[in-house]
Hints:
The chain is an alpha/beta fold. The protein contains 10 helices and 12 strands.
Amino acid sequence: MKRPKNILTIDVEDWYHICDTDDQIPFSQWSNCESRIKRNTEKILHALLNKHIRGTFFILGYIAEHFPEVVKAIDKEGHELATHGYSHVQVYKQTPEEFTHELQKSKGIIESISGKPLYGYRAPEWSIGKKTNNHHKKIAHWALEILVQHGIHYDSSIAPVRIIGTPHAPTFPYIIKAHAGEIIEFPPLVMPTFMGNIPIGGGWGLRMMSYHDIKNTIEQLNKSCLPALIYLHPWEIDEDLPRVCLPLIKRFVCYGRVRHTWEKFLRLIDEFEFTSVEAVLMNYDHNPLPSYSAYTL
């Protein structure tokens, strides 16, 4: 059986869009920061064009609003557009009303620029699936309900890992049944270990783990005819990345081995086949996905 194409996703945000840094760079000061989003995104687009790859770009509403040319450039190259929310605030820090407003605003801005409907969503820091002291349920069920109600067909916000996600969640694409309807979940690539799943499909995991481990994990998933989902932030490939003064652990997560990102990314798109979430979804019309209730995850 032919192995599936993997999924390439890009979270279109700038270097100052780091969660929990309101004391250093509040929203009101974002307009004063030097933006690097255009040149970094162009670098990614050029690499994908050379490999004839089309991916899914989860665009922050703030970026779309202030840099519509970035949205137009992504759309012109034939990539799928999706939303990453508006202001990069974790879902569990928002009320349902605030979440709805951010979703509608970001979706509306991107759709007005591209003239195309958006069907995908990714939360900042995979925060639909994160358990917090103030939210005892592991999944933000209400957020999934709102996504379905607003025409979102798929989500990519539940990481099957500890700390930032839900460790027992599936590691493959699956359907979540909510009261408002169904939504398909696309989790990031993780590597199973005796300590639990380790995220290696993007962010610090992609940077810190060996390429050998990343490659083997993708190949094992593909042998089961399942796609691996990779994600990348444009600021991670910046050769002269501006840095925010962060606590030690958060500094490690954001900047650890960041100079290795581009090299690993180029190796991945050279050795594996990638496509968009949209393209993978078309295959599932003929191959049904497993289903789970949102309230049992």
